[in-house]
Amino acid sequence: MLLKAPPHQVAGHQAAEGNLGPLVDGAGRFFKPLQDHDRGSKEVGFYQSFWSNSQLPPNVYRFFPSFYGTQLLEASDGSGPREHLVINDVVSSLYRPSVIDVKIGSRTWYPGASDEYVDKCVEKDRTSTSLKLGFRISGLQVYQTEELGLWKPGRRWVKAILSIDQVRSVLRAFVSSNASSSSPDCTHAPAIFGGPTGVLAQLLELKQWFERQTFYHFYSTSVLLMYGRDEADGSRPVAASVKLVDFAHVVDGEGVIDHNFLGGLCSLIKFVEDILESVDGSVAWTSKLGSAAD
């Protein structure tokens, strides 16, 4: 089995230059090395609990990667055999994928975490948009056009996303054919964010579950927003998809709604709704101008 670093990973630890990170097999499987300090075993425990929980509504499963257990593999950093979580590679089926990783929650540290870990998370939450918006953008890539190619800003650029206007601009860029431009055109917003199967509809469906579910509380979990291109027509976006990933810090909900995650999810939904509304408004306004000119 030939393994390699995921070509479309936009956030998290990456298996590059001898570092420990996830691997993919090119056939739809994603191998994530189990994290130290029980984080890896906790993530495996979540997947086992989630996929064996018969009380979950059937529609919820599609928002989570499929789980295939664990496998002992040679670690990407050359440190020897290491246990890996095996899940489906949620990006592998997309042609020329555009992906954005949004870490949800105004608080990313979990109950029972060490003081050192809490201090680290509090600092990140305070110095990013997590505390004020309930989410922060952790990474992204956007396939623009044949001429412009792939736009994938570096970590330093992503960490500088600190204002509401910057977040709005990045989310607009995500659905634009000129993402790297200072004035994103939002060309793909109606097709990707809108419609009965678009990102907004999927986020609202996920929100309905979080308004009721009390099984789990998700800390430092990300929502991936993704879409690909039609292989016959590279300019046409297709297959909008929403997935949750990263579950090393999920804890028992103990019968209480996860307001931390729900609040951040609602905040993200509002941004997507506003972008769709602004695009629809500009289209209507332009149409009126055209009628007047005629």
TrEMBL record:
Documented EC number(s): 2.7.1.140, 2.7.1.151
Catalyzed reaction equations: 1D-myo-inositol 1,4,5-trisphosphate + 2 ATP = 1D-myo-inositol 1,3,4,5,6-pentakisphosphate + 2 ADP + 2 H(+); 1D-myo-inositol 1,3,4,6-tetrakisphosphate + ATP = 1D-myo-inositol 1,3,4,5,6-pentakisphosphate + ADP + H(+)
One GO location term (cellular component): nucleus
Gene Ontology terms describing biological process: inositol phosphate biosynthetic process
Domain of life the protein comes from: Eukaryota
Record keywords, A-Z: ATP-binding, Kinase, Nucleotide-binding, Transferase
Molecular functions (GO terms): ATP binding; inositol-1,3,4,6-tetrakisphosphate 5-kinase activity; inositol-1,4,5-trisphosphate 3-kinase activity
Family classification: Belongs to the inositol phosphokinase (IPK) family.
Function of the protein: Inositol phosphate kinase with a broad substrate specificity.
Protein name: Inositol polyphosphate multikinase
